[in-house]
Amino acid sequence: MLQSFGKYLLFLQSLFIRKESTKILFGRTIDEAILIGINSIFIVAIVSTFIGAVTCVQVAYNLDNAFIPRSTIGFMVREMTILELAPTITSIVLAGKVGSSIAGGLGTMQITEQVDALEVMGINSASYLVLPKVVAAIMVFPMLVILSMFLSILGGYLAGTISGELTPQEYITGIRDGFIPYNITFALIKSVVFAFLISSISSFRGYNTRGGALEVGAASTSAVTSSVIAILIGDFVLAYVLL
Amino acid sequence: MIEIHNIHKTFGDKKVLDGVSGVFETGKTNLLLGASGTGKSVLLKCIVGLIKPDLGSVTFDGTYFTNNKLDIRQEIRRKIGMLFQGSALFDSMTVEQNVEFPLKMLTDMNKDERMERVNFCLKRVGLEGANKKMPSEISGGMKKRVGIARAIAPNCTYLFCDEPNSGLDPQTALKIDELIKEITEEYNITTIIVTHDMNSVIEIGDKIFFLYEGKKLWEGTRDEIMDTDIKELNDFIFANRLMRDAKKVEEEEREEEEERLHHQPAAQENNMAPPADTPNEPQPQNPEGPAATTQTGQNQV
Known about the structure:
heterodimer; A: mainly alpha; about 0% strand; B: Rossmann fold; six-stranded mixed beta sheet; four-stranded antiparallel beta sheet; globular; Permease_MalE (chain A); phospholipid transporter activity (chain A); membrane (chain A); transmembrane (chain A); transmembrane helix (chain A)
């Protein structure tokens, strides 16, 4: 465990020695951002909308006290979405989608000697392959989290109003009530940290794949498992430190 | 010229290379010969710097490589072209992009100059017109050719080939061997090839290094290899010859079988055809000649 963590730190260090030119890395980062971002919009949209909808219905089910205003449902959907569901659940979903893709891609490159081919040319394969993924994830994850927040709140609105649990006016009142802008900053900080954890851990697992197709599958699985655990630990630490 | 001196490498308890030394000459195809598991590929990777040897040194044209400063190693590596066992083409790039890649990364050429060089290299390996194909769309032999084109694109001084003809049929393997030999002589580069194929030795081996259990047991030319009295080398040649003969017999049997199967339906058709002495049914007269349409549709255009 400790040895793996040490190797992970050395791997991160290797990303920043003998880097390729900024022009090349910029081009690769944009390509990776498109791959990570555009390809994830659909799954993030679906998951976020339904999470918002389910949160609204379940909160409404639990709030049956006549003394509590119905606008509290909107308030709770907003708080849960911004503080926890949008950044954390989106990151866990992306750990499955992006993390396994990164680990599988790098693992396949490793076992088919494509990484060696880069090294023989005198290119720092870790920096060339991994650094753009990490930077792209850090750029794109906050955008996906903002999209997720918006769609979750929209999902809650649709579910609440269509099911007749509360009126549109009550929901909007709840959404606007006692808003703390820092919570958005906190969510975005979380998304950046999670982006770094997912992309770097998955790259580390993929890059260190040895063997054959079986090991590539194992690396993908291990990348997702490790990323999810890291997200949960990171979530707790950030909440403890920043709130 | 590449010189290696006293290379040692151990993985865990297993000693893979045990003090291998040698000189690989420029303009010649140098072969690292040996059975599987004798450390040939590990030695090749130690020479190009993919694996760090435990002990020993590698020198490229007088410049010390192993454990030298990073920028000097990088400078030498940029003169290296390597053909990998599985070709190691980048899956996400077309043939053209694969060959262009080292030019883009290692040179200051503009797009037009790069494309000119890419087309030249692809033509040199006999792959003109395959520019836009993806690696998954081409055959094993073509992949090897693209690998060679990618290796020579940045005007490499040293060419390394790890089992260049593995997984290829004998004819394609021979063509790849010949291509490597031609390129070596044409550009006067130092080529090192890892192989266990005696055909390669006979066809292109200018200098051969025989490895056995991590040690260099013999070195010499292809003319000298048959006269050696080293038991392990003779056993290897004998085993290789037996395998080649077995393959040849197998191939002949397969060809015979294919020929038999090919003739069988024709014979069956002949059996079903009316005997020669049976009078044919009278054919209807066709005023438009034999090329015109018949009722059976056989001559339909």
